[in-house]
Amino acid sequence: MAGELPITRNPVGAEKAEAIRCAVRLATAMGDSRLARMEDAAGLFALLSDPAVHAPIYTLPRPLTLGSVEDFIDTHFLEREVGIGLLFVREGEGGQILGYSDVQVWPEYGAGELGGALHPSLHGQGSGARGAAASFGWMFETLGLNLLCETAALDNVATQRLLDGLSFRRMGEVMSTRSDGTRRASLVWEMTREEWAGRHGRV
Ligand SMILES: CC(C)(COP(=O)(O)OP(=O)(O)OC[C@H]1O[C@@H](n2cnc3c(N)ncnc32)[C@H](O)[C@@H]1OP(=O)(O)O)[C@@H](O)C(=O)NCCC(=O)NCCS
Fold first, then answer.
1. What residues form DSSP beta bridges with 148?
2. What is the b/e burial string over 140-177, where b = at least 16 CB atoms within 10 angstroms of the residue's CB?
3. How many Cβ atoms from other residues are within 10 Å of residue 102's Cβ?
4. Which ligand 1 atom minimizes the distance to the CA of 53?
5. Inter-CA distances, 119 with 49, 50, 91, 138, 157, Å
6. Is 20 left (phi over 0), alpha (psi -120 to 50) or beta?
7. Is 90:50 a contact under the CB 8 Å cutoff?
8. Which of 47, 121, 159 to mutate to test the pocket of ligand 1 (most atoms within 8 A of CB)?
9. Mutation to probe ligand 1, out of 1, 33, 127, 161 (largest number of atoms < 8 A from CB)
10. What's the N-to-C CA distance of the chain in angstroms?
11. Where are the domains of the chain?
């Protein structure tokens, strides 16, 4: 999670922040995705190994190896215990990992971020936009967040169109740091709970 995010920082009370941490600790599924398990490491590594999946995502481990993917899963176990992060996978028939979602939360600001990817065989058919909309709704409803903050690489047109299409507000540009210390520019978007309710229905 980049240190410059979220752009908008409205501190919430201690009680609200703790309620968000509790909701993170209790989460076991998000839509048709379930919590990642250590046994998913090989399947997740296979999904992430395709550059069409990993290249646009700055939050993935680098170098990408089976061991670093295991560490990535383990880090999310710890983040769930603390109430600040969740890793979900979407499993296809036959057990192939067809997608993953990485939820990161700033409880003190009532804010969160969703990252993730779909298997390339599913790209460009509308399931990314539908799944993201359902996941954003879940983050407001189930985690009780007030704000979502999203990023995309400057050349990641699909994610930019997805976020613009869901009426996220563009908030400028930040530098994002990958796990190996390299940096890349990211466009940033935000959406408040009220804006989401106005656009997409009650939360
Ligand atoms: C980003 C991602 C989840 C989007 O899912 P998707 O199912 O491919 O996207 P959708 O079919 O729902 O399309 C979303 C929008 O992007 C557009 N789009 C999709 N693929 C595109 C492409 N290759 N080039 C340009 N635009 C594209 C669609 O036309 C749509 O925009 P529109 O509603 O204005 O027409 C998916 O492409 C992916 O996993 N990419 C790799 C990882 C990644 O970039 N993750 C996000 C950053 S954390």
1. 112, 191
2. beebbbbbbbbbbbeebeebbebbeebebeebeebebb
3. 21
4. 41
5. 11, 9, 11, 22, 17
6. alpha
7. no
8. 159
9. 161
10. 25
11. 14-146
Whole-angstrom distance, CA of residue 46 vs CA of residue 167: 33
Q: Is the CB–ligand 1 distance for residue 57 below 6 Å?
A: yes
On whether the CB atoms of residues 1 and 76 are closer than 8 A, the answer is no
**Domain spanning 14-146: which superfamily?**
Gcn5-related N-acetyltransferase (GNAT) (3.40.630.30)
Q: What are 28-78's pLDDT values in tens digits?
A: 999 999 999 999 999 999 999 999 999 999 999 999 999 999 999 999 999
**Residue 149 CA to chain centroid, in angstroms?**
10
pTM, 2 dp: 0.97
Q: Residue 184 pairs with which residues in a beta bridge?
A: 176
